[in-house]
Amino acid sequence: MATTQRYVLWIAVLASFVAFLDGTIVNVALPAISDELGGGIRTQQWVVDAYLITLGALILVAGSVSDAYGRVLVLRIGLIGFAVASLAIAAAPTAEFLIVARAVQGAAGAFLVPSSLALITSNFSGPAQSRAIGIWTAMTTSAMIVGPLLGGILVDFASWRWAFLINVVPIGVTLVLLARGGFRDTRHQDASIDWLGAVLCTLGLGGMVYALIEQPNQGWASPGIWIPLVLGALLFLTFVMRQRTVRHPILPLDLFRARNFRMGNIATTFIYGALALNGLVVVVYLQEGAGLPATLAGLASLPMTILMILFSSRVGALSGRWGPRFFMTIGPITMGVGALLLLTVGSDFSYWWQVLPSMIVMGAGLALTVAPLTSAILGAIEPERSGIASAVNNAVARVAGLIAIALLASIVGGTLDLEGFHRAAIVTAVLMIAGGITSFVGIRNPDRALYPPAEPA
């Protein structure tokens, strides 16, 4: 690699690592946050969903913004915004202040991952680009291991506030590399940003999520619930309708004409909604219900991450030969079985016999699912539109997690006790199995003639 390319790769890795690190740390810190700032499960829901609302809405517009104002400038603004929001979260005096800061952090985070990948694709080509993306994937995936461990240690031995301050270190290093790299921005003169669409999407999602989170406390008959629910739904519908006529849509609806893209995103909704629900419930219950320290609770799902890292690339290669349908069917159903194994968790708690088997089975299912799902969705769209196709799928996954977390109180019955934990496990299993069935019914393998014959084992 040339010196400039090394700078680009490290900048891309560090900028994305920040966003992935924060996403894995926050779940570990939730019990400590609600203990100090109050609000119980409602505070925990909003801490997660405030971030996901702005992230899910603005990640669609990130590509347009970087084209209009330059990728380096947008990445620098995203990094500074993320750092300022992290400092505000660490200093939050109330739950309400923290939630607003998390929304700002999500808005900044929306520009980190797309801008990072755009830097790689614009500075690498051919085999070097594939290698760079492979390095980026491996390094950013490591945040799934580092985040829970680091977050747990900081919560147990310092404070949950330090878990957010840790973001400032890689952000500072990335800003230094950006300054020393001597990069010049390239802008598209005809680029246009649908700011109105972004506002409609954000307010629409926000209204619906507010109603879903607050409904268990006020009831569906309360005007404070059904009014924001209806208004949010109307605003989001207006956003979708606008995307059909606006010159530069942030959600190109014509992408959904491709069968595998359409059905793959429906499967994504089920699968990633289930993953978000399971990820939060397990780490919070292990602390509040089973009494584990934050460090051990954060490490509980480590087998899932390890299995995905070890086998997802091999599964991706097999999917490239045999097609994604089989893997997208078996993988989510396997994860559903793993979720049902959590029903063995009882008042006489044992991680090794009650939780670890579930994590292993779910990890195997996750390894079978992720790469084929991604290839099926992106493979359905022409290569020159793969960037926006990836952004749409990422946004779908984020919004699915957003809605799943918003429904948490309704799913667990208001309290994340043992009974609520079992309810969440059942809902997770149902969503996973629904994702597998959707894939079986809806996904089509490309022509087998496109695949080389499988080599003998």
TrEMBL record:
Alphabetical UniProt keywords: Cell membrane, Membrane, Transmembrane, Transmembrane helix, Transport
Family matches, as InterPro entries: EmrB-like, MFS, MFS_dom, MFS_trans_sf
Membrane topology: Multi-pass membrane protein
Main location: membrane
Keyword Transmembrane helix: yes
Membrane-spanning ranges: 7-30, 50-66, 73-93, 99-120, 132-154, 160-183, 195-213, 225-242, 263-286, 292-313, 325-345, 351-374, 395-416, 422-443
Record CDD domains: MFS_MMR_MDR_like
Keyword Flavoprotein: no
Major facilitator superfamily (MFS) profile domain segment(s): 8-447
Subcellular location: Cell membrane
Protein name according to UniProt: MFS transporter
